[in-house]
Design brief:
- 29% of the residues lie in helices and 25% in strands.
- The longest helix is centred in the first third of the chain and has 22 residues, at 2-23.
- It is an alpha/beta fold.
- The strands form 3 sheets. Strands 9, 10, 11, 12, 13, 14 and 15 form a 7-stranded mixed sheet that branches. Strands 3, 4, 6, 7 and 8 form a 5-stranded antiparallel sheet that branches.
- It has helices at residues 2-23, 124-133, 148-159, 177-192, 225-233, 246-256, 285-294; strands at residues 35-36, 44-47, 56-63, 74-80, 84-87, 95-104, 107-108, 115-118, 140-142, 165-171, 199-205, 215-221, 265-271, 299-301, 304-306.
- It has 7 helices and 15 strands.
- The chain has 2 domains: 35-118, Immunoglobulin-like (Sandwich); 124-306, 3-Layer(aba) Sandwich (Rossmann fold), CATH 3.40.50.
- Helix 3 (148-159) packs parallel to helix 4 (177-192).
């Protein structure tokens, strides 16, 4: 009899605790202390105070408008277990409103008070830095054309291994004439540094808004003959408006090359101008980063910035 009573007490206690838990609603306070950056050209960093019982946060953004009531906030992303977020789907020289909403399952808080973030004027240096940062690569600087071959060899020695897939993506606007000539004259020395089994490919990009012949490529191959012929056939033209189709060229290269290496995949970007943005490009920084990270092995971008501004 005592044993039966003991079980009844246990079950009754569990029933009581379960019902108390289900009947206690989750309350989430409004996120506070939202801080947004203003010192970058191609990203905006956000941070805020932790909300008790929140599992994550929804990030809302609106284009800046002098009349806040006219701003249309759109959900752009969410984070779980963090009180920070970096927005790389922004344009340079722009302003945006941000608001944060805490969530736990279907329960959401009130939206935070808005904060205004802004971006600076784009530079080639920052563009190449952030491309490398978000794809696991590094920026290599060349102060002039004569330093480009050494920078390429340094990248190869630092990062390439046996059976690497390696693609050169080269800006072929007029300002790149001396740099391309240096690569052409040094290609045999560059190839001599390649580990065994490397497949080599190459592509060029220009300005898609000024010419139809803005992108060309040759596929990856262990026979370098066609790649060398492609390099020697590169001619320079256009590029008078400074920014070029960097994002579009990168996206096509990532998307169209027949990547197969299970050891390392590398893109060496050689250029001296920042990317076109907004309506002047089909793909954004975020598109390029997402496409690089979508591949089975991350394609690591190693931009060579020549005489950056």
């Amino acid at each position: 009899m005592k044993k039966t009573i003991s079980y009844l007490i246990v079950f009754t206690s569990l029933f009581f605790l379960t019902n108390c838990s289900e009947d206690t609603p989750i309350e989430l306070s409004q996120p506070e202390a939202l801080t947004v950056s203003s010192e970058f050209a191609l990203k905006i960093e956000l941070s805020w105070d932790e909300v008790k019982s929140a599992l994550g946060y929804n990030i809302y953004r609106a284009d800046y408008d002098f009349v806040l009531e006219d701003a249309i906030f759109t959900l752009i992303d969410k984070v779980e277990g963090l009180e920070t977020y970096t927005d790389i789907s922004v344009n340079s020289s722009s302003q945006y409103y941000y608001r944060i909403e805490a969530f736990n399952g279907n329960v959401v808080s009130e939206l935070s008070v808005e904060s205004i973030g802004e971006t600076r004027v784009i530079t080639a240096e920052e563009a190449f830095d952030i491309l490398a940062e978000y794809t696991g690569g590094s920026v290599y600087d060349a102060n002039n054309a004569s330093e480009v071959p050494d920078a390429i060899i340094e990248i190869i020695n630092d990062n390439a291994v046996a059976n690497t897939d390696l693609v050169f993506l080269i800006d072929n606007t007029l300002s790149m004439s001396d740099d391309i000539a240096q690569v052409k004259s040094s290609i045999n020395n560059i190839i001599a540094e390649l580990p065994s089994g490397v497949r080599l490919g190459m592509a060029t990009y220009n300005d898609a808004n000024t010419t139809t012949d803005w992108y060309n490529s040759i596929g990856l191959d262990t026979d370098f003959t066609n790649t060398i012929n492609f390099l020697n056939s590169i001619s320079v033209f256009g590029g008078g408006d400074y920014p070029e189709s960097v994002y579009d060229g990168l996206y096509l290269t990532l998307n169209q090359m027949s990547w197969s290496s299970t050891s390392e995949r590398i893109v060496i970007v050689i250029g001296d101008a920042p990317p076109l943005e907004g309506s002047l490009t089909n793909y954004s920084l975020k598109d390029v980063v997402d496409e690089a990270n979508r591949l089975d092995i991350d394609v690591n971008l190693y931009p060579i910035l020549i005489d950056g501004f």
